Amino acid sequence: MKEAFTEYLEKRPEVEAIFVGTRRTDPHGGKLSSEGFDMTDGGWPRFMRVHPVIEWHYVEVWAFLRHLKVPYCELYDQGYTSLGGTNDTHPNPALRVEGPDGEVRYRPAYELEEDREERLGRDW
User: Fold this and answer.
1) 3-state secondary structure of 96
2) Pick from 28, 26, 19: which is nearest to 82 by CA?
3) How far apart are CA 108 and CA 77, in angstroms?
4) Residue 81 phi/psi, 5° resolution?
5) Which of 12, 89, 114, 120 sees the fewest Cβ atoms within 10 Å?
């Protein structure tokens, strides 16, 4: 991500701020300002991070996306709630459903209700 921002800003030096989707419940989101504006941390290219959804909850993000019919990655319909690397991301166990025949399936991400369960499908 650092590399991509560096490249982007080198090509567009006039850019001073970038909208990001960080929320309060994201890793390190609790350290961000309540106003929704923070400069990047040391070691990152310098720009103002704008956090328009900093106080949103997971269910609110999904309600917004679904209401506006915003296209999203199909993995979210397969029970993934937080996407990372190909080797450390799995369907969220909080969405696991076992049928009467023992068949396991996962409910879609938009059915997850608890912010704290969003990253249960990730290996840390």
Assistant:
1) strand
2) 26
3) 4
4) -120, -10
5) 12
> What DSSP state is assigned to residue 40?
P
Between CA 41 and CA 49 the distance in angstroms is 10
CB 16 within 8 A of CB 47: yes
* Measured distance CA(77)–CA(56) in Å, rounded: 21
Q: What is the pLDDT of residue 124?
A: 62
pLDDT at 25: 87
pLDDT value at residue 30: 87
d(CA 38, CA 53): 13
In single-letter form, the type of residue at position 111 comes to E
Question: Which residues, including other chains, have CB under 8 Å from residue 108's CB and lie 6 or more apart?
Answer: 76, 77, 78, 79, 95
* Cα 119 → chain centroid: 9
